[in-house]
Amino acid sequence: MACGLKICLMVFVVGNIEALVDGAPQVPCYFIFGDSLVDSGNNNVLETVAKANNLPYGVDFPGGPTGRFCNGRNIADIIAEHLGFDSHIQPFVIAQGQDILNGINYGSGGSGILDETGQQLGARISLGGQLENHQTTISKISTILGNNQSAIEHLNKCLYSVGMGSNDYINNYFMPEHYNTSRQHNPNQYASLLIQQYSLRLRALYNYGARKVVLFALGLIGCAPYELKRNIGLPCVPHINLAVNLFNNKLKVLVDNLNQQLAGAKFIYVNTTGISTTMGFGFRFSNAPCCTVSTGIGEGQCLSQQDPCPNRNEYVFFDAFHPTEAANVIMGGRAYTSQNPFDTYPVDIRGLVQL
Ligand SMILES: *[C@@H]1O[C@H](CO)[C@@H](O)[C@H](O)[C@H]1NC(C)=O
Ligand SMILES: *[C@@H]1O[C@H](CO)[C@@H](O)[C@H](O)[C@H]1NC(C)=O
Ligand SMILES: *[C@@H]1O[C@H](CO)[C@@H](O)[C@H](O)[C@H]1NC(C)=O
């Protein structure tokens, strides 16, 4: 072929860019903050009973157990797949080198918005601790990209998701044998206290360059097998669901406030309760765990090395708290592409990443 070197190179480069655009994820990076619903191995190295790096956890995950509190993929994995990433986002504890440019998963089982939350389980990384880890990541990104300005530009383009608060109820407010919060605050005061603290943390995240942020509301904790066992005889525990609803309603208001007050901020709300209520009807077992669960401290996790139920796709819950992969596929799918006007607010993740 007769062509000058320069033109040949251009053809080559343009062709390659097109290939990259076709296969590239919709955002260059995805950062994940949360608890055991997203933890993908950060707790493996912590001294805690909130660990999931043993079978039957991971029974359906390629390569087996990783620390995910699920038989297979968790909701952050499902969202990363919808975004077009060709591998899951690495947990903070093992991510290194150029990998961190794709994002990091900071999730930690047992953690909450309040630092004290989950302390009876052992070590965990609270939302505040996860933000400190994010600062470490940011300085590494600055080093890789050569300066702070490029790091900020990169961080502005990423997607962020935060799912926090379940443990502030399960492993704090509704555990009066270990925590005083329910004696100090009524449910409305407690929800306000959590939202106030959450708001401070989310504003810090914004100050670290986050613009597109997905906030997961809390699920119906009062319908989880764990709470049903503690409150025998009820289909769901109404006072727990009412308390969680107060939090969720305030969280939706917080989304509006952050979008109005922070220039360029695009926060969205995922209606976890609404999605799980409507998807529950599609499963044969919506309030029984698939695996045999433990008792005592750390109660409700799968007993190590015991065979789980064979028909995992028929269960909403894998252990007494955590959804099965089958439930995560639906939840993550509807957070990404909402199926009705209630699923996400004001837009779904697919819409958010296009903004
Ligand atoms: C980059 O940011 C860090 C911390 O925010 C700061 O200490 C450092 O001086 C900054 N470097 C440059 C070149 O601006
Ligand atoms: C709860 O309150 C009691 C009595 O006021 C106090 O002794 C205890 O340290 C408190 N526990 C926690 C976890 O704050
Ligand atoms: C969540 O979805 C349900 C219906 O699925 C709806 O009734 C409820 O109002 C929604 N909640 C919020 C806070 O948008």
TrEMBL record:
Please give one Pfam family short name. Lipase_GDSL
* Source organism superkingdom: Eukaryota
| InterPro entries named among the record's database cross-references | GDSL (IPR001087), GDSL_esterase/lipase (IPR051238), SGNH_hydro_sf (IPR036514), SGNH_plant_lipase-like (IPR035669)
Q: Identify the stretch annotated as signal peptide in this record.
A: 1-19
GO cellular component terms, A-Z: extracellular region
Q: What is its main location?
A: secreted
Compartment list: Secreted
Q: Which GO terms describe its biological process?
A: lipid catabolic process
The UniProt entry's sequence similarity note says: Belongs to the 'GDSL' lipolytic enzyme family.
Name assigned to this protein: GDSL esterase/lipase
Q: Organism source for this protein?
A: Ilex paraguariensis
